[in-house]
């Protein structure tokens, strides 16, 4: 890997693999005695791979079980595995490791999936994370009827809190989508969601750097990334993606079924599909919020902080409500196969895959990690 920061180095796990290579992993710790009886104790954790629970353009995710030496209330974990030496060059994962280490701090962990550290084996990089059995927000798109407005509002509030933390610390997520919003709890126990997957996150320097390529996932990419409007900040692209997520939670439909409609919206903002929200009795404040975070102009789009002050979000309370009961069994990471589920949203986004927007692969740079990210999730 490329040179790493102290923050990343300190989160590295001392690791060795048992003979059943990569299926059984052992981490060695030298730490203070939690009982206070001894200055230093040696401890080891043994983890065994159970099954694959996810995957995409940036790697695979495995469910692992602790077989001995684990901490209380930590029987399972999720491990993201990535190849760091691809055909067209090495991807620099320092960016993701830095973001994960940063936002696993207790100050932020209520909003982000917590990491327990990282390790590597040859050309493979592994990131150990907390396992959230309830699955991801994408599973909600399969539910009938759509999510009640009060629930969508609460979820939006929590996502915005996380984005505000990221943006205040100089990070943009750049691939916000339902698959990267994981569920820690849901009604009747109340919503608690966490932002995950910093695979193409970026620390923003002063000033705006031109977008060198289209990054993100089709259907959630802001129009400025396609060059349809003037360039704005990287943060504004996160806010657009949030608006798309909220619209889908409320309607189970994408705002724009294809690129042509998105391009038309840039020229004619009055064609935004507010009618879909009106048909489902979404409040005027809710509609105004969606329009404000999906403003065609990135410079006029609400920031995360301003969005948190929007009247629709400010009305999020802990007052009693009648929660819907969702069946998460079909899309939980414990049952990750979704091929047989009816998913109109996914079908509608499929049309975007025909766009010729993927740049040619960069040439491999010997001895240097490639600084550009993996492109669109296909």
User: How many independent structural domains?
Assistant: 2
Q: Strand arrangement, largest sheet?
A: 1-2-3-4-5-7-6
Count of alpha/pi helices: 10
Look at the helices and sheets and give the structural class.
alpha+beta
User: What string, H for helix and E for strand, traces the elements in order?
Assistant: HEEEEEHEEHEEEEHHHHHHH
Distance between the termini: 26 Å
Largest sheet: 7 strands, antiparallel
Rg over CA atoms, rounded to whole Å, is 21 Å
Residue-averaged pLDDT, rounded? 80
Low-confidence parts lasting 5 or more residues at pLDDT below 50?
205-212, 318-322, 330-342, 353-378
Helix content: 10-25%
Strand content: 15-25%
CATH architecture of the largest domain: Orthogonal Bundle
* CATH homology-level superfamily of the largest domain: Transferase(Phosphotransferase) domain 1
Work out the number of β strands: 11
Dominant shape = elongated
Question: What's the CATH class label of the largest domain?
Answer: Mainly Alpha
- CATH fold field value of the largest domain: Transferase(Phosphotransferase), domain 1
Region (Disordered): 326-345
InterPro entries: Kinase-like_dom_sf, Plant_MAPKKK, Prot_kinase_dom, Ser/Thr_kinase_AS
GO biological process, one term: signal transduction
Pfam family, one: Pkinase
